[in-house]
Write a structure and sequence with these properties.
The protein is mostly beta strands and 115 residues long. Helix content is 0%, strand content 58%. Strand 4 and strand 5 form a beta hairpin.
Length: 115
């Protein structure tokens, strides 16, 4: 079993920054992919950023140039540095780990950006 614990959410003004972290523990399949998703009220969950074990990344178009995903394979952690935040970035952010044909999710952390 794999557990994911997110941290770093909060309330920030537009233009500000937050750094989310997700720590994975348990029997972690390698290689794997770690992602950040978000879900705003009344909207579908969407993929924000992804990073594989080799460090290859991809981003949602609306966050390119503002968000940076990174990982520490030795510590089984993934981070999301969010800069120039906008009110439309407000959502619950979820960490996901995909490995061995199984997806594991964290409990989510709230990010609120005020205008």
């Amino acid at each position: 079993q794999v557990q994911l614990v997110e941290s770093g959410g909060g309330l920030v003004q537009a233009g500000g920054s937050l750094r989310l972290s997700c720590a994975a523990s348990g029997r972690i399949f390698s290689p794997n992919v770690m992602d950040w998703y978000r879900q705003a009220p009344g909207k579908q969950r969407e993929l924000v950023a992804t990073i594989d074990s080799g460090g290859s990344t991809d981003y949602l178009d609306s966050v390119k140039g503002r968000f940076t995903i990174s990982r520490d394979n030795a510590e089984n952690t993934v981070h999301l540095q969010m800069n120039s935040l906008r009110p439309e970035d407000t959502a619950v952010y979820y960490c996901r780990l995909s490995g061995g044909a199984i997806n594991y999710w964290g409990q989510g952390t709230q990010v609120t950006v005020s205008s």
